[in-house]
Amino acid sequence: MSGIKRNPVRRKNTVAVSGYDATQLAGESVDFDVAEATFIRNCKIRNLTGDTITYYRDVLSMLKRMVAVQGVERPIDVTHDTIHDCVLAKREEGVVDATVDKYLRGWRAYFNFMAAEGYVTTNPFDRVEKIKSERRIIETFSKTQLRSLLEAPKKNTFTGYRNYVLMLTFLDTMIRVSEAEGILIPNINWRERKIKVYGKGRKERYVPFQKTLERHLKEYIEIRGYLDHDFLFVNIDNTPMKTRTMQESIQEYGIAAGIKGVRVSPHTFRHTGAKMFVMDEGDPLSLQKILGHATLDMVRTYVSLFASDISTKHDRHSPLENLYVD
């Protein structure tokens, strides 16, 4: 139509058509290493976290090895059957569905990018459904186990008292170990009793804490003293305490306390705190915000898994049974 000015549309400079000679295809179409480098570059442009980029590198390295076993050497040749064979191979290795699903999420993001950029003619994940994982019991500490763990550190030493306060922090705030590693003293709001933490995807949120933890945090900070950085938890040489050290310290206390039948880790403190919150009739929306979950799905899992315990509460708080009780 005359008189109508149209904006030019830039064509993708990629030819990825089935049947073309490989020399006419983009490097990303025929070389897994080139494709990964381009995908990771895009992740960096999108400002994804270092942990997320490491995750993508790991799952893509595994994908390259697994498809090679099937004789697939080019990204453009990966089909939904290729992915299905990878899933079956992992299951035969005894890998649980939740872990397989973790791999699939990374592979799906990669091929979504490849399809959007025109490096593959069809997206194999258009015909790969999400795995329905088996619901597994979430292991938590009993109150007896919690007391044993909290009694394990030698509180008359700096590291012992620090680890004691660290475990109290995990239980009361239900934060992730990576979030504990990043706590800065200026981000503790003493008046409102809440701590600003940085969760997955660099999303910040405030988590509340109560009087008992407040008292111990203040005492620990006084012992910690003034340093040239603001990280809350530090080593004996005053460097920031890292995730691995936190995990190993808590594992050692689990051995010392003779804890059996449950994994002794920071994440188990998180699960235990969530269970106790649900058991004490805390509302799901508040728990979701404290945990930093994007949806209520995990909170619903907590409520569902601990339904038998909630039934005990219902014995005392049944609306019908209490209808005529003043």
TrEMBL record:
PROSITE patterns: TYR_RECOMBINASE. It comes from the Bacteria. Keywords: DNA recombination, DNA-binding. InterPro entries: DNA_brk_join_enz, Integrase-like_cat_sf, Integrase_catalytic, Integrase_recombinase_N, Tyrosine_recombinase_XerCD. Residues 136-315 form the Tyr recombinase domain. It holds the Pfam family Phage_integrase. Belongs to the 'phage' integrase family. This is Tyrosine-type recombinase/integrase. It comes from Cohnella silvisoli.
